[in-house]
TrEMBL record:
Pfam families: Pribosyltran (PF00156). It comes from Chenopodium quinoa. It is an enzyme of class 2 (transferase). The gene is LOC110704175. Its EC number is 2.4.2.8. Its cofactor is Mg(2+). Keywords: Cytoplasm, Glycosyltransferase, Magnesium, Metal-binding, Nucleotide-binding, Purine salvage, Transferase. This is Hypoxanthine phosphoribosyltransferase. One of its GO terms (molecular function) is magnesium ion binding.
Length: 196
């Protein structure tokens, strides 16, 4: 698996340090809001799973945790811009503050759609906490709800990255660092550059 990595962008130590900072910021911001309602952290499967687990264990407040799964891209690797939900929330988020947790924001389509979905379910505010952000690829503006804020771990250059939950063809998610995939690993894929 390591042979397929061109270079490492963030080591597990870099990641650990940054996740601790994000968790401290979230803990501070959530505590500052005088609300009796505890926040719900909603991870977007599958890519969120490592980040979500690391993040919530460092948030020193009682929080609820749920997962959603969004099918954005069918069987291909390109965005068609019209996601649909394939596994919905288990928890009721009516009047709750939701923190959406993602591994990476690319075009923004998945998040925009999910934010609208959470609004329709009655969330009072929606923040986003994404491990990586690739603003150079953004196609839509991400409009948060209520007093929601946007948190990101790192700005990601426009390379195909894997590890720390992110995959190519469902592999590499278990790498403990984030690296750039060697082009030979995705050459032969018919569509243009695959997305995470
Ligand atoms: C990736 C990533 C985000 C989304 C970002 O998930 O985890 O959820 O794409 O792309 P966008 O900003 O262009 O919408 P993917 O659909 O590959 O599923 P996965 O998490 O199971 O890998
Ligand atoms: Mn995802
Ligand atoms: Mg993926």
């Amino acid at each position: 698996m390591e042979d397929d990595i061109e270079n490492i962008l963030w080591t597990s130590e870099d990641i650990s340090n940054r996740v601790s900072e994000l968790a401290a910021q979230l803990t501070h911001d959530i505590s500052a809001v005088k609300s009796t309602e505890l926040p719900v952290f909603v991870g977007v499967a599958t890519g969120c799973f490592v980040f979500l687990a690391d993040l919530v264990r460092r948030v020193s407040l009682p929080v609820s945790i749920d997962l959603v799964r969004v099918s954005s891209y069918g069987t291909g690797t390109l965005s068609n811009g019209s996601p649909s939900i394939s596994s919905d929330l288990k928890l009721d988020v009516t009047d709750k503050h939701v923190v959406l947790v993602e591994d990476i924001v690319d075009t923004g389509n998945t998040l925009c759609w999910l934010i609208k979905h959470l609004k329709s379910k009655g969330a009072s505010s929606v923040s986003v906490c994404t491990f990586l952000d690739k603003p150079s690829r953004r196609k839509v503006n991400i409009e948060l709800i209520g007093k929601g804020k946007f948190y990101r771990g790192f700005e990601c250059p426009d390379h195909f990255v894997v590890g720390y939950g992110m995959d190519f063809a469902e592999l590499y998610r278990n790498l403990p660092y984030v690296g750039v995939l060697k082009p030979r690993c995705y050459q032969g894929v018919k569509e243009e550059l695959p997305k995470n």
